[in-house]
Specification:
By secondary structure, this protein is of the alpha+beta class. The chain has helices at residues 12-83, 88-101, 150-158, 204-212, 245-252, 255-265, 303-306, 308-336, 343-354, 370-416, 468-486, 492-504, 583-586, 597-607, 613-628; strands at residues 107-112, 127-131, 134-138, 162-163, 167-168, 176-188, 191-203, 221-225, 231-233, 270-274, 283-290, 295-302, 430-437, 445-451, 456-464, 513-521, 526-532, 538-540, 546-548, 568-571, 576-581, 637-644. Strands 1, 2, 3, 4, 5, 6 and 7 form a 7-stranded antiparallel beta sheet that branches. A 5-stranded antiparallel beta sheet has the order 9-8-12-11-10. It has a 5-stranded antiparallel beta sheet with strand order 13-22-21-18-19. A hairpin with a 4-residue loop joins strand 11 and strand 12. Helix 1 runs antiparallel to helix 8 and helix 11 (468-486) packs across helix 12 (492-504). The longest helix is centred in the first third of the chain and has 72 residues, at 12-83. InterPro entries: Bact_Sigma-Reg, HAMP_dom, PPM-type-like_dom_sf, PPM-type_phosphatase-like_dom. Pfam families: HAMP (PF00672), MCP-like_PDC_1 (PF22673), SpoIIE (PF07228).
């Protein structure tokens, strides 16, 4: 930076102006470079986080696909053996054929309860595995007590397929393995009898081979931990089955690693900075769950490799900046010798700039007076205006990109919802239709329906607090929880209670859901339903009379973990229609700030009492649009109509 000197007759104004420009440019460039470096580092870290999460998700998904392939045959065999006990030769041929056609599987067994395979046969557990490159039947080594092993006990007690923790099998396989066990059940009247399990063993050597193919950057590597944090696969074989994330955290006194381990064993995913002792230098970890086994996969990348491009780009920018300063110095020297250019040329250039030509060069005056200063002021104005227009263009493009991403998000959200109607054309006992119109590009309303067996239909309508992407994500979580829990429970109140407990966990944003959930017995017309603070649905009797359902009281889902919900039952007559909706229907407003209200809704339902569910939903939506007119839609609108025809329909 040049030092300030007293002006002289030969270089007073021009020298001061040159010194100010160079000093200002130095400060601006320094501040811009510092801001650029910090912002670029943050942007790069976010981009790396997204890429790492996508990579680990993809790797976990690929491994899950391979493990799912391992699961298919045991599930099929358990189902088949539950229907009819096979002949011994057929069972052994099934197990041997399973290994012969599935190179990823090390061993397979079918272990029966005492006397379950054949009367008088206390223990029966044929086991096949790979020995010397061939499929061979070997002894388990503990045939008299296999029912005490975890791979047998856990699926029997839980009543569902289970992946075991990794263990060393000293007798049958004689390797470190993990076992997938599927219970064999036979239904005898109303009772389900446990017969035994079908298993598939996966060698940890095979798993390490699969995980070892995953890498990021130059020296990043992947590893897998079990449901309790024990290393199942790791490049350092000394850690496998001997150490866990928590033992390392305890040894090093690292609460950060302990917190990461807790999130991994809980099935979370994330991108976190690791303590320096893990690699001996700063590093980052991306991790995601393996849904098939309940384990978690992680990828570790050194920080210097993450930011290598940023450091290289910083050096290039510094080099360009130095060159720019050299050019700027020459320009300032040229300006200082040409400050006496005529004002007419300056005015003509200013007029050209005013027409929109921001690339027009500004003539530099040669005199050392106010004419040169004015020329430079015009140059600064031109550059600022050009930058402003460039920023405005970039902002417009960013806005268009955001709108495009929101449209994609809406498409993804709508793909979560059933949209094929009629949903079950083979069933004639009922007819169902639903529709959702979000107020924003994405919203928080939801509906769902699915069969619970051949004669029971579960359907629901819900409303998440808030709008936009957070509400849409909470909606997707809620819908997934309901479907998963409904596979285990058939009481609406129990389903809502369990969903509420799950939503209350780590709900720091305090989002909540209102929901009406019902289960229809298609054979009898009995409707069991429960409510979590939702609007009462309407019932349209076969004669067209409209009434509002009386719902049991229940608080919103996601607020109080100890909340209690109740189930109410009623019987629907054939021809009865049930119309469920969210508050976006009755609270829709017109330009006069009037509400659509339940009275107008009841009138609309009465007028369309004989319509099909799809036509009735469309009639309600059309009535709301006509009522709202030019008013903006303030809330998501969801409607669902179910027409019960009766078990004798069709």
């Amino acid at each position: 930076m040049p030092k300030a000197v007293k002006p002289t007759p030969g270089r007073g104004l021009a020298f001061r102006l040159a010194a100010c420009i160079l000093t200002g440019a130095t400060l601006i460039f320094g501040a811009a470079f510092a801001d650029y470096y910090v912002s670029s580092k943050d942007m790069l870290l976010r981009a790396v986080r997204e890429n790492a999460i996508h990579l680990i998700r993809g790797a976990a998904a690929r491994l899950d696909v391979q493990l799912a392939g391992v699961e298919c045959v045991p599930r099929f065999l358990a189902a088949a053996y539950g229907r009819a006990t096979p002949a011994r030769a057929d069972l052994e041929r099934d197990l041997a054929g399973f290994l012969a056609t599935n190179p990823d599987v090390y061993g397979a067994a079918a272990a029966y309860e005492p006397g379950a395979f054949a009367p008088g046969l206390a223990h029966f557990a044929p086991y096949f595995c790979r020995k010397d490159g061939r499929v061979t039947q070997v002894s388990l080594g503990y045939e008299e007590r296999y029912e005490l092993e975890n791979w047998y006990l856990v699926p029997r007690e839980l009543g569902r397929p289970v992946w075991s923790e990794p263990y060393f099998d000293e007798s049958g396989g004689d390797i470190v393995m993990a076992t997938y066990s599927v219970p064999i059940f036979r239904t005898e009247g109303a009772r389900r009898a446990f017969l035994g399990v079908v298993t598939a063993d996966v060698s940890l050597d095979w798993l390490r081979g699969q995980v070892g193919r995953i890498s990021m950057f130059r020296s990043g590597y992947a590893f897998v931990v079990s449901r309790v944090g024990v290393y199942v696969s790791h490049p350092d074989s000394r850690l496998v089955m001997r150490e866990s994330v928590f033992s390392l955290a305890e040894e090093k006194g690292s609460p950060e690693l302990r917190a990461i381990g807790r999130d991994m064993v809980k099935g979370g995913e994330g991108f976190a900075r690791l303590p320096d002792f893990v690699l001996g230098k700063p590093a980052w970890l991306a991790y995601a769950p393996l849904s098939a086994t309940g384990w978690s996969m992680g990828v570790i990348v050194p920080e210097d490799e993450l930011f290598a491009d940023l450091h290289r780009l910083g050096r290039e920018v510094a080099t360009l900046g130095a060159g720019g300063f050299a050019v700027l110095l020459l320009v300032i020297a040229a300006i200082a010798t040409s400050i006496t250019r005529p004002l007419s040329r300056l005015a003509a250039t200013a007029a050209e700039i005013a027409t929109g030509n921001l690339d027009a060069p500004v003539p530099q005056g040669g005199s050392r007076d106010e004419v040169g200063a004015l020329a430079r002021s015009f140059e600064q104005m031109r550059l600022a205006l050009k930058d402003y227009i460039a920023d405005l263009t970039a902002t417009t493009k960013a806005k268009e990109r955001l709108e495009s991403e929101l449209k994609i998000a809406r498409s993804i959200q709508m793909s979560f919802l059933p949209k094929h109607f009629p949903p079950f054309p083979e069933l004639t006992a009922f007819e169902l239709h639903a529709s959702l119109e979000p107020a924003w590009e994405v919203g928080g309303d939801l509906y769902d329906f699915f069969l619970l067996g051949p004669d029971k239909l579960l359907f629901l309508v819900g409303d998440v607090s808030g709008k936009g992407v957070p509400a849409a994500l909470f909606m997707a979580v809620t819908k997934t929880l309901v479907k998963g829990i409904a596979e285990q429970e058939t009481d609406p109140a129990v389903i809502l209670t369990k969903v509420n407990r799950e939503l209350c966990v780590d709900n720091e944003s305090m989002l909540f859901v209102t929901m009406f959930l019902a289960i229809l017995d298609c054979a009898t017309g009995e409707l069991a339903f429960s409510n979590a603070g939702h609007n009462p649905p309407a019932l349209i009797a076969p004669d067209g009379a409209v009434s509002w359902m009386t719902l049991p009281r229940g608080v919103f889902l996601g607020i109080m973990e100890e909340a209690v919900y109740k189930t109410t039952r009623m019987r629907l007559a054939p021809g009865t229609r049930l119309f469920a909706f969210t508050d976006g229907v009755n609270e829709a407003m017109n330009t006069g700030l009037e509400l659509f209200g339940t009275r107008r809704l009841g009138e609309t339902l009465a007028a369309g009492a004989s319509l099909s569910p799809e036509d009735l939903d469309r009639a309600v939506m059309d009535a709301i649009r006509v009522f709202a007119g030019e008013a903006d839609q303030a809330d998501d609108i969801t409607v669902l109509t179910m027409l019960y025809r009766g078990s004798e329909a069709g």
